[in-house]
Design brief:
Length: about 450
């Protein structure tokens, strides 16, 4: 087991280059693999999650090669994937499993998608249901959980579908299956969700039409190779943004970070709380808006968070909860039941960790109420259980900047699923952190 050891205090300073965006990296691999021709991906995130996606397509005959810092992909075309010799192991990656379910439903061959114990606990019925309506044959375990057995050679038909929740993964799964379906597939979003898939499909030459909250894709479209420059990951940057905000005398710049409007909820929430966040050199990179983000120490105030803000910051709430604990007054989050079915139950796990650190936190079914400490130490010392959730581990690491005693965080092995090199980069920025291997 990997454990993080953190000493209290210090500040974050300097230029902090976080790795590439995980969501964009996944989609770049998937679409370049089924495109015709050679694509070139720069900034690809070589994390365990994204490499699981890459290895899955290698197992289906796609060739990847390194050219300096770029990843070159020889796409096999929409119909060119080959039957793998065994299960496709997607590790801890829910994005891989949900999106690839849509792609694999349209193949001529059978496939089996498997994952680790954590991924096997996460709900997959939410993608099985619309794919089944399209004509796919998928068998899950225990009421719709991985492993997923997908029968190939099934004729798919376009459907009109409204997901039960706003989810980029459900939407993307259905749209990708729509590439292989007869007719037009329409997805009407009940709320705002990330739009990376639509943007990237367009970059690979696929027409995706939007009318209000309804997206339409016609089946049978071919993808053409494209060059993709992956921006730095805002979800990874969020930990340093929060750290620099809560730690006195901090000042950092995070270059080339994606600020997609369907992802930037963490910036808007923190700015509403009083964070000193400034965007410089805003530009478009491979269809995605990007900027250099400057952050300085600031005093925060508690706010109410709900509605569309929740989906726009769904992956960043562990970091936001740390900021809330350092704010003046009370922060209330509602409408976030989706946090209970992430890599861990992030409502319960964050509440437990915050309580161990002495924070006044109250749990609801769909959120948390956190009473902050605006000045001085907001946290005591404690050993925290991350429950194998990378974002929980990194969020509590930043809490050490406002702690009065050392913090230890257990089960940090999965940090590499999204942020390889986190300990080194955080240490270079000023966080007093080290990692060790310990027996369970």
């Amino acid at each position: 087991m990997r454990r993080f050891h953190l000493q209290p205090g210090a500040a974050l300073r300097g230029r902090v280059c976080v790795p590439g965006d995980k969501s964009v990296s996944h989609r770049a691999i998937m679409l370049s693999a089924i495109a015709s021709g050679r694509s070139r991906i720069t900034g690809f995130l070589e994390s365990a999650d994204c490499l699981a996606t890459l290895h899955a397509f290698e197992a289906m005959g796609v060739i990847f090669a390194r050219d300096g810092e770029a990843l070159e992909v020889d796409g096999v075309g929409r119909e060119g994937l080959q039957a793998p010799v065994g299960p496709l192991d997607l590790g801890n990656s829910g994005t891989s499993m949900r999106l690839m379910s849509g792609l694999m439903a349209g193949q001529r061959f059978d496939s089996r998608l498997v994952g680790d114990a954590s991924l096997s606990r996460r709900p997959m019925a939410r993608v099985i249901e619309p794919l089944t309506r399209m004509g796919a044959r998928i068998e899950g375990q225990d009421g719709g959980r991985a492993p997923l057995a997908i029968q190939g050679g099934q004729p798919l038909k376009g459907i009109d579908y409204t997901p039960p929740v706003a989810s980029a993964q459900i939407k993307s799964c259905v749209l990708l299956a729509g590439l292989y379906a007869d007719g037009v597939t329409r997805v009407t979003e009940p709320g705002i969700s990330r739009d990376h898939t639509e943007r990237m499909l367009s970059a690979f030459g696929v027409s995706v039409e939007r009318e209000a909250r309804t997206l339409s894709i016609a089946g049978g479209q071919a993808l053409q190779a494209a060059d993709v420059a992956v921006p730095a990951d805002l979800s990874s940057a969020a930990f340093f943004i929060v750290g620099a905000t809560i730690a006195e005398s901090s000042a950092i710049v995070l270059p080339g970070v994606g600020i997609n409007p369907t992802r930037r909820g963490v910036l808007d929430i923190l700015k509403r709380m009083g964070a000193d966040i400034r965007l410089h050199d805003e530009r478009i990179q491979a269809g995605e808006p990007v900027a250099d983000i400057e952050v300085r120490s600031a005093s925060l105030k508690g706010v109410d968070i709900g509605g569309d803000e929740v989906e726009l910051a769904i992956d960043e709430f562990p970091a936001i909860f740390i900021a809330a604990a350092c704010a003046e007054g009370t922060t209330r989050l509602t409408g976030a039941a989706e946090l209970r079915v992430k890599e861990s139950d992030r409502i319960a796990v964050m509440a437990d960790g915050l309580s161990r650190l002495g924070v006044d936190v109250r749990v609801a079914e769909d959120g948390l109420t956190i009473v902050g400490t605006a000045t001085g130490a907001a946290f005591g010392g404690a050993r925290i259980e991350s429950h194998d959730d990378h974002r929980i581990a990194m969020a509590f690491a930043m809490a050490a900047l406002r702690a009065s005693a050392p913090i230890e965080i257990d089960d940090c092995d999965f940090v590499d699923t999204s942020f390889p090199g986190f300990v080194t980069l955080a240490g270079e920025a000023g966080l007093q952190i080290r990692a060790s291997e310990v027996s369970r």
